[in-house]
Design goal:
The complex is a heterodimer of chains A (about 120) and B (about 120). Chain A is mostly beta strands and about 120 residues long. Chain A contains no helices and 11 strands. Chain B has strands at about 5, 10-15, 20, 25, 30-40, 45-50, 55-60, 65-70, 75-80, 85-95, 105, 110-115. In chain B, strands 2, 5, 6, 10, 11 and 12 form a 6-stranded mixed beta sheet that branches. In chain B, strands 3-9-8-7 form a 4-stranded antiparallel beta sheet, with no helix packed on it. Chain B has a two-stranded antiparallel ribbon with strand order 1-4. Classes of the chains: A mainly beta (about 120), B mainly beta (about 120).
Chain lengths: ~120, ~120
């Protein structure tokens, strides 16, 4: 059973470009979380999604950032008009449906390291 | 406000020595508690978790952690450290309940260096 997959693993963008980060949750998982890790810091929660729904976006910056988890396909974190301060590692995690075994655990992907030039 | 504090940014121990990494939390109720390990350039791996019950929990790789409600702490321990344990360790809390924990709140991490 493959784990959480993220691509690309490394992404370089110039200021003003768009960045799209993809996350494929573990098989059978219906909950996806996105976290951002700035250099020398811990992970900060960004957004929590279920299929086609945003459950909690309290950690998302108000502008330029958006996330989706469509019925089919991976979850996408989209950053428009990137700035140097967006350079960070972005981690996705997934968990199984509520009430199932391990539903209270989050399984993390390897991350996407975004560098903005 | 909910928060997690890991007071030690860096810790260096000799191989074979014991280890304790500290974690304190601020939360309205007893949260779910987690320790994760992150190797350089990698994602996070769950070491152990506490939801309820026995306050001493065992995890993978020989790690254990003890929940102390009175101190709002969840310290991670290992009796004998191996060189491969060098990594960054994160304590995290999540909302208790029967469903998903929702967002996790992480501490700032402790970097463990192991001397030969």
């Amino acid at each position: 059973n493959a784990g959480v997959m993220q691509n690309p693993r490394h992404l370089v963008r110039r200021r003003g470009q768009e960045a799209r980060l993809r996350c494929s949750p573990m098989k059978g998982h219906s909950h996806v979380y996105w976290y951002r890790q700035l250099p020398e810091e811990g992970l900060k929660f960004m957004v929590y999604l279920q299929k086609e729904n945003i459950i909690d976006e309290s950690g998302m910056p108000k502008e330029r950032f958006s996330a989706e988890f469509p019925k089919e396909g991976p979850s996408i974190l989209r950053i428009q008009q990137v700035v140097r301060g967006d350079s960070a590692a972005y981690f996705c995690a997934s968990s199984p449906p509520s009430g199932t075994r391990q539903s209270n655990e989050q399984f993390f992907g390897p991350g996407t390291r975004l560098t903005v030039l | 406000a909910q928060s997690v504090t890991q007071p030690d940014i860096h810790i260096t121990v000799s191989e074979g020595a014991s280890l304790e990494l500290r974690c304190n939390y601020s939360y309205g109720a007893t949260p779910y508690l987690f320790w994760y390990v992150q190797s350089p350039g990698q994602g996070l791996q769950l070491l152990l978790k506490y939801f309820s019950g026995d306050t001493l929990v065992q995890g993978i790789k020989g790690f254990e952690a003890e929940f102390k409600r009175s101190q709002s702490s969840f310290n991670l321990r290992k009796p004998s450290v191996h060189w491969s344990d060098a990594a960054e360790y994160f304590c995290a809390v999540g909302a208790p309940g029967s469903g998903n924990t929702g967002k996790l709140i992480f501490g700032q991490g402790t970097t463990l260096q192991v001397k030969p």
